Amino acid sequence: MGIERYSISMYFAHILMAAARRLTLDEEVLLKEAGISRKRLDNLHLRITPDQFSRLMQAVWRLSDDEFFGAGSQRCPKGCFAIMAKQVIHSHNLHSVYYKLSHFYNVMNDSLHLELKVVGDEAMFSMALSDPSLDPEYLLRGFLLLLWHRFPSWLIGQRITLKRVTFDHPEPVHSAEYRLMFPCPIHFDQPETCLVFDARILTAPLVQTAETLAYHLQRAPVDWFTRPAYYPVYTRRVLDHLENIGDLAKATIQSTASELHLTERTLRRKLLAEGSKFQKLKDGVRRDMAIHYLSQTSMSINQTSQQLGFSDPSAFTRAFRQWTGELPRTYRDAALNRK
Q1: Do 77 and 66 contact (CB within 8 A), yes or no?
Q2: pLDDT tens-digit map of 209-227
Q3: What's the mean pLDDT when you consider all of the chain?
Q4: Cα gap 35→321, rounded to integer Å
Q5: More confident site: 130 or 304
Q6: How far is C-alpha 40 from the geometric centre of its chain's CA atoms?
Q7: DSSP structure string for 265-290
Q8: Which CATH superfamily, name and number, covers 231-338?
Q9: Domain boundaries, the chain
Q10: Cβ neighbourhood burial of 236 (10 Å; 0-12, 13-18, 19+)
């Protein structure tokens, strides 16, 4: 499960190659560098590793010298993100990060307009393309919104919990993948493309430094497509255990502590010091596994409920609706219709 959870739908490689085709790049060179065969590329039901997708994106960036894949009204030369990142790393808090990030791209490139708004207790970071027709498969909008969430989260050392995400385009055929990218209610055909989160986190200070940023940029973009690396040590160890355990339903803090060669009391204390709780971590893994299982069609909703350790299907239904804003049946039917 751990490997599958962090795999990426071939659909994203397919639409990235479509962008490369519009840029008249050498497709064989791109596929060879990514380690993807032409035959596999055309099978949209397959999945690839984050490393493969990262290498494909790096190759497109290198050959096109455009970090926007040709989907912007103006080319964004390779290295622009790194320049922006080296500016925002000296910010005092998350609010400053979003302000500087917006200012950089708004001045540097006419392809998009970024804006941070605070309305009541909600912060909204919106993005508008000057020419959306250049992004026909919504690749640039999906990638950049993911980046505007995960990179700032890494900077402050904690995931920015999203209340909802909106997109200014119709629901794409691969919308199930968006639930893995943004584990929150997602709405399409909205007035703007936007991240919405609790405004209180804007005061969170940065924990990363120029030194850690240098390593982060060396690994980019692979870390943006996997579980963010900012989890503290014991939180990460618990997550690694839960994601790879054979029977998540039977996982308890006692059994997990034993696997990690700790006492239950010690593990609770370590997690508490990191601002984590075992049940919250387990529920997060449950959420991602539920989304994965319901994106496939081989496991029924009842089987999924049992696999994840819910007492009955109705409890699972309530939890899934809270996680995604949808009923499991609705989500499963949409997956079936895409097959």
Answers
A1: yes
A2: 999 899 889 988 987 887 5
A3: 88
A4: 38
A5: 130
A6: 23
A7: HHHHHHHHHTT--HHHHHHHHHHHHH
A8: Homeodomain-like (1.10.10.60)
A9: 2-64, 80-203, 231-338
A10: middle
